[in-house]
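Narrative of activities, Objective 1.

The group set out to show that a structural description can be obtained from nothing but a protein's sequence at a throughput compatible with the screening campaign. Below is one input-output pair from the validation batch, recorded exactly as produced.
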Amino acid sequence: MTMAIATLTHVAGTETLTGTPGQTVDYGFLLTNTSGGRLRMSIEARPQAPAEPGWFAIQGAVERDLETGQTENLTVKVTIPPATPPGRYAFRLRGYLTDDRERTIESPELVLQVPEPNGPLPKPNGDRKVPWWAIAGGVGAILVIGGLIAGLLFIDGTPTMPQLEGKSVKEAIALLKEEKIGFQIYEEFTGAVDSGQVIRQEPAPGTEMESEDFASLVVETLSVATPNLVDLSIAQAEERLVAEGLALGPVSDEESATAQGGVVLRQTPAANERVLPGTSIAVVVAKEMVTVNSLVGQTVSEASQSLVAQGLRQGRITQRRTGGTPGVVLSHNPAAGARVSAGTAVALVVEDQMVQVPNVIGTPHTDASATLAQLGLRVGTITHLSQGKPAGSVLAQRPGPRSRVAVGSSVDLDVERRRVIGQVDPVIMQPNSVLLQQLQNPQTQVIGNTLRVVPPDDGQ
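Output recorded for this entry:
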């Protein structure tokens, strides 16, 4: 089953390409990670008979690592064997997770058309728009990305090959038309020149052309210049990229002493580089920086609230005895005036808040909890034991009485287990009597020689 982990789309204009036996035709693809996580994809060509696997070669690595949202450009070279009969040859490009072949994606079907010798070339599909490279100069030459179509013109006399490198494809075709030279055009992406500029030509300028000769041109494929994203926010940068037909790639951050937090510091590829449509642009943004305010003299609670208001958080608390007011901040790290990233933890040093643990043995554990809370202590682990003492009373405590501990420390208690009375024969009791109702109440317990309804206790 195909999973929505990534997309494989052909570059515009490569649905159907035409080539003759012995030639190599290039197909362009865009592989985009849409999974929300990092992927390692393997790519393979899957031809349909009568096309054979040996015709297809994926350029570059067949395994690709893609970050979230990253787009890779793929080129598949299809070499048409000599003596290949005319016809329609189809294939798809298939991708799968390298460590899980069951999770796959496939491109749309791509077609390679081998025409009859000396027959008319197939016309482009009438149901799709033809971009600037599809018809150049009105001479009937069809130029497709990564593909090859020959321009058929009758040659009269012995024309000479003109200088075409560096010219636009329209200018080149116009010169070939003047010389009545047939041509075939390939596209290639270098990122070094503008879209549609002739990169190479064969034969060389000045060569005399025979009647059966064609000029071969390699033209820079459709590309876009990367916009300058520096000093833009992430939202603004993404909006700008989408408007240019590009995508936002990985975003990382770093501290900056001068830039405002959240704005773009750098981008890769840099501004004004030419890239294929759909390319992901990685950016580095400035971290949000905060100036630490002084917390000295504040209580721990006040300091914690102040840190939250600054976009910081409270870190470790260390106590120190100086003879000052207990619980007041003596110092902190980072110190006041320091510039730190938003969310940084600030460690506090506060005046010692040691208190003496009271003796709560023999008191009901609810009373013991209240006594401890008044001193800033709390009840820790409660262990229920049966020692014949009044139910719910404290049997032992840890730390023991008169121990000195920091405010906020916990005190563990051993508490007498509450005992449920035995079953009472209702026959000897008057129906609906108050005593019978008390005895049948699961909260009724024997305390001394009396019945008492008490609230339930944890661990009974």
